Give the backbone structure.
Amino acid sequence: MVRIELSVDLIYEVAPPGADFVFNIHGAHTRCQVIRSERLDISQTVLPQVFTDPVSLNRYLRLSAWSGPLKVSYQAVVDLHHHLCAPELIAETPVSRLPTEVLNCIYPSRYCQSDLLGPLVMAEFGNLPQGYSRVVAIQDWVRRRVKFEGNTTTSATSAIDTLNEGRGVCRDFAHLMIALCRALNIPARFATGIDFGADPALGPTDFHAYVEVFLGGRWYIFDPSGTAIPMGFVRFGTGRDAADVAFATIFGSVQSQPPRIQVRALQDAQGLSEMPRHRSEAISTDAPVHWG
């Protein structure tokens, strides 16, 4: 078990007459991710609504803010119970055996145009043995082809753009890996959290995009940018691509400051927790999903 303490501060200046916000900054409640404690503070006197999507289990915060300063702060302590498995034991799941709730993750989406990548994936990965190792090969290929470089892409950058330009940030790495997996009929989804363990040289602690791939009846974690430590990822949200799980969606005129984020691993009093580290095993923080 890994215990993570995190805090997120979002600071805005809202222009008249005000703005509406939808945030995805709460830790998701799952069987393998337990929220031990959490706190939400909002500087304005508003009526926030926190709700959980019944399918994705993503938690969203909605609020309408007045014009003027707005600060939204979220703190949590989260226990992560990882499922670890030897990679050679994990097979791909045929489309005919995919659970219904997984099917939307094999289709093209706005930022993951998998329907345009068929010839490429067959040339690069079509002859590789199927299973977890083929997905690792896709991840490694993305790391070789794309350079991590901040402030080089925008919220409109797609997987095809990243493939052509060869640079981007974690969001772009994730979109490209997802599109390549889907082009091989391997379900893959976009996941968000915090970049636990990232090199400080890359900048301040920030939100992080990574990938979950459905193999052997579970969603397994992959970090195609290679900038963080997956054992420390607290999941905020999952979706088809970044459009589904933006940390803040804003309706109105707003000026924002960079998010202020802190994250660290904790030792519990009983000594049952461990420090996140890179591992050779496949890692999942999701319960198995059964066909039928």
